[in-house]
Each structure stands twice: as C-alpha cells, then as structure tokens.
Design a protein that fits this description.
2 domains; ten-stranded mixed β-sheet; alpha/beta; Dihydrodipicolinate Reductase, domain 2; about 35% helix; Rossmann fold; binds 6-O-phosphono-beta-D-glucopyranose
C-alpha cells in the first residue's frame, strides 16, 4: 500500500491508526507492506517514529501494544519524492519490487491518494505512465483510493473521472466517503433489508417526512482556507449527507453486491430535487461568536485563513423531494452545520398519524406521530417513539420510546470507518465506495445551487455558535407545520 501524502494530517490522524488497529485485530493480510511517499526527507526509522506517535495520539485503542507495534512497524517504509518527478516514481517502483521480494506482496498495489485534491490528476497520471504501470498480470491487482473532495463541481468531477479512467478501470477506482465506513451507516441497510417489518411501511403512504441532521460542535479547526472554498455544501452535503439520504431512500437491491447497491443509490440521487414550490427551500447560515460546551469560541470570520467579509456558509438546510413512486410528495429535510449546540448525526423517519382517531378529541390531541430515529453518532442506536396508555382509569395517551443502544447491546468496540474501508479495498469490495456516476449525480444536484449563489448572492444568516442554527431553518420547516427535532 503506497500512501501519497504520507506527511499529511489524514495519514497520521486516520490511516496509520486504522492500519495499526487492523494489524492488532489480525485483519491485515499476512503479506502486506506500507510505503509512505511524500516530499519531505525522512528515513524509514523517523517515519516509523512519527507513525508511533500518531497511533498513540489518535488510535481508538489508546494503549499501544508494544509487541504488535514491533511487528507492525516493520511493515512501514518511507520514500521521498516529488509528485511531478518521473524519476521519483521509477525509484518508487524499484523500492516496491524490493518490497515484493521481502514481504511477498506479489505485485499487488494499493495506491492511497491522501494529498490535497489538486495533486490527484498528476499522481494518477504518473502511476499510469511511469514504470509503475509495468506491474500487470492476471495474478496481481492495482487499486487506487481517492479521497474527497472528488471535484469541486459537476464539470470538474466529470473531468477528473475522464482523466482517471485513462489510467484505471472503474473497478480499480475506490472513491472514499468515510461516512459509508461507519458501522451505524451500514446498519441503515441492515435495519431496512434484514427485517421484514420496516420495508412495507417505508414509503409515502406511511411516512410523512424524513429529517436528516449532521450537526457538529467543532468549527473549522485550522482548515479555514480550505473551508473558504468549500463551505458546508461541498464539505459535508454533497458527500456525507447525500450518502445518508441515498441509503435511506433507495430501493432494495436485487443482491448485496457493489454495483447492485450503487445502482439503486444513483437512482435516488438522480430523482432528487429542491422543492421549488417552497419559498425558502434552502437556508444558508454562518456562525458568529458564542459558547460551545461552556467554552467561548470565535465566529467564522475570525477564524484563521477566513476572509473578514467571507460569505461562505457553515450551515445549510434544504427541503428536498424525490421524484419517484415511493417518495412522491414526502419531504426530506436535511441540515448540516458547524459550531452547533452539539455533535449529532441522525436520520429520523416521521410517520403519519393514524388514518382515523378513535379517541376523544382531548385524547387525540395528545397523540404524536411515530418516529423511528437512527442515530449515527455519537450515541449510536435506534429508537422508536409510539403512544402508550398512561396507567389509570382515564384515557390518556403518552408518547414513550423504545430504545436500542449499540454500546449496551454489543460489548464490542466498533472499528473506525477507515479500518473497514481500507480492508474492503484490500479485499476488492467496492460496495462502500462511490461510483463515478454516483459522484456525478450528487454534484448534478448541488452544482446549480452554488452556481446560483454566485449569480444571485443569497442572504447568509448569522447564527450564534452553540445554538441550534439559523432561525430561517426553523421557519423553513415550520412553514410546513412541522418542526426540527431538537439538537
Ligand atoms: C469531513 C469534513 O469529511 O468530515 C470535516 O471535511 C468534518 O469538516 C468531518 O468535520 C466529520 O466527520 P465525522 O466522522 O467526525 O462525523
């Protein structure tokens, strides 16, 4: 496995700890080696030392097991090189051949692009045109993992797809969206398709609306200059939020296989649109100074790397509709933002009220719709709200909640998303990766939205850091006589 961008934040916060945990759980193949490729001069030894510190700081299993580390660290190598220099790729190829002999890796190659996105075209071209391409036989494989963002609009995503397809076939390309590696995200499919009771009521006849919330308490965390050109729409909505929505709304695939699953997700994304009949189907917000978890925090425009007059949104709420038989007329309200009251990712399915009320008017007023909530993070679980008779001689109905918590039900620590995804790529399973048409379908919805912001600058409402978001978002949903779930 070659990691381009081996000195970067993602490598040290996520990839190396994930690889260490895979080694710890004995899940890495016996013949495996990792080679970090980056510009800075380092020896294998100094790279190993850096990786050790990254595991100590960021691994989910906090206590490093020295014996496992000692075996794992021997898999780590470093290769200094410039992304634009053919000779450096040729030298990398020689290094890889030597590793094939030493570690028995048989010419199999997994390239991980953990660099800034501007380097993706160059690196894929170099992999495809230098001596690295020589490793080709029926007995070995080459795969490439490409990090998000994949493009910054529809045109650039298409151009990147065309470019990468010159050097790799689609089944070699693994576009990563780490939300798909989260246990609880995968459980959306299990809940829907491994149980007989949900699917028959999973449509417009029984569901009133769906709310998807991806709220964060953190701010831009030193990534101000990147965030300025992304905003929440590119950073979270185009990828993570769209994936959650697609998994919630897709049809059951004919089989649980990469293309069958992705075909169904693409259909949802293609049928998705903003509700143009709603006067405020989209609300943008930006955080101002406030208090998060008792700490005073600055506003977005005071963050490092952010323009004082920035009009980048850190919050977005949208009312979306899906034009197909299952979902016609069922709104999907989605919202995502930074510096909100707390971290919460959840999907809430709000069901319709019973078609006819048997009870007195007074009792009927107490009856609330059923809500099925899939909490993705932080308190992973599933809950169902329903009405129960309050004990007593009267006829009072009270909403109660049936709650399933992963932490209580399974006494097993869930792997990090990157562990699952790296392993799936090694095993050649692309079900949890985004296909080219899927990424383009998501950009097709999102691109006209931000292009329109350029042509017709929209109002960005300030919201206090630590609050539930802009008032406009509350007005958007209350205009439909509904309410956001509380944060
Ligand atoms: C990343 C975004 O893709 O996802 C970050 O770039 C965001 O801005 C992060 O904080 C959230 O991921 P998670 O796994 O913490 O919900």
């Amino acid at each position: 496995m070659v990691i381009f961008g081996a000195s970067g934040d993602l490598t040290h916060r996520k990839l190396i700890p994930a690889l260490y945990n895979l080694a710890k759980d004995n899940l890495l193949p016996p013949n495996f080696a990792i080679i970090g490729f980056a510009r800075r001069a380092k020896t294998d030894e100094s790279f190993r030392q850096e990786c050790y510190e990254s595991v100590v700081a960021h691994s989910r299993s906090k206590l490093i097991d020295e014996e496992i580390w000692s075996t794992f660290s021997k898999l780590l190598h470093y290769h200094q090189g410039n992304y634009d220099n053919n000779a450096d790729y040729d030298a990398l190829n020689e290094r890889l051949s030597a590793i094939d002999s030493g570690h028995g890796t048989q010419g199999n190659r997994l390239y991980y692009l953990s660099t800034p996105p501007e380097a993706y075209t160059l690196i894929t071209e170099k992999i495809g045109t230098t001596s690295l391409t020589q490793v080709k036989s029926d007995k070995c494989w080459t795969r490439v993992i490409i990090e998000k963002p994949f493009g910054r609009d529809l045109a650039s995503a298409r151009a990147l797809n065309t470019h990468v397809h010159k050097f790799f076939t689609e089944d070699q390309i693994y576009r990563i969206d780490h939300y798909l590696g989260k246990e609880t995200v995968q459980n959306i499919l299990v809940l829907r398709f491994a149980n007989g009771i949900f699917e028959p009521i999973w449509d417009r006849r029984y569901i009133d609306h769906v709310q998807i919330t991806v709220a964060e308490a953190i701010g831009v965390e030193g990534r101000g200059s990147y965030y300025e050109s992304a905003g929440v729409i590119r950073d979270m909505v185009q990828n993570h939020v769209m994936q959650l929505l697609a998994l919630t709304a897709m049809e059951p695939p004919a089989e649980f296989e990469a293309d069958a699953v992705r075909n169904e997700k693409v259909k949802v994304l293609k049928a998705l649109r903003l509700d143009s009949s709603h006067p405020e189907a989209l609300v943008r917000g930006q955080y101002s100074p406030g208090k998060v978890n008792g700490q005073l925090v600055v506003g977005y425009t005071q963050e490092e790397g952010v323009a004082q007059d920035s009009n980048t949104e850190t919050y977005l709420a949208m009312k979306l509709l899906i034009d197909n038989w299952r979902w016609a007329g069922v709104p999907f309200y989605v919202r995502s933002g930074k510096r909100l009251k707390r971290r919460l990712t959840e999907i809430a399915i709000h069901f319709r009220l019973p078609p006819r009320m048997l009870f007195s008017e007074h009792t009927a007023q107490q009856i609330e719709p059923n809500v099925l909530v899939m909490t993705i993070q932080p308190d992973e679980g599933i809950s169902l709200k329903f009405g129960a008779k309050r004990p007593g001689t009267g006829e009072q109905v009270q909403p109660v909640v049936m709650d399933f918590q992963y932490g209580d039900a399974f006494n097993i620590a869930a792997p990090e998303a990157y562990e699952r995804l790296i392993l799936d790529c090694v095993l050649g399973d692309s079900t949890l990766f985004t296909r080219s048409d899927e990424v383009e379908a998501a950009w097709s919805l999102i691109t006209p939205i931000f292009e329109d912001w350029v042509k017709n600058p929209t109002f960005i409402e300030q919201y206090r850091a630590g609050s539930a978001g802009p008032k406009g978002a509350a007005d958007m949903i209350s205009g439909d006589e509904r309410q956001w779930r509380s944060l």
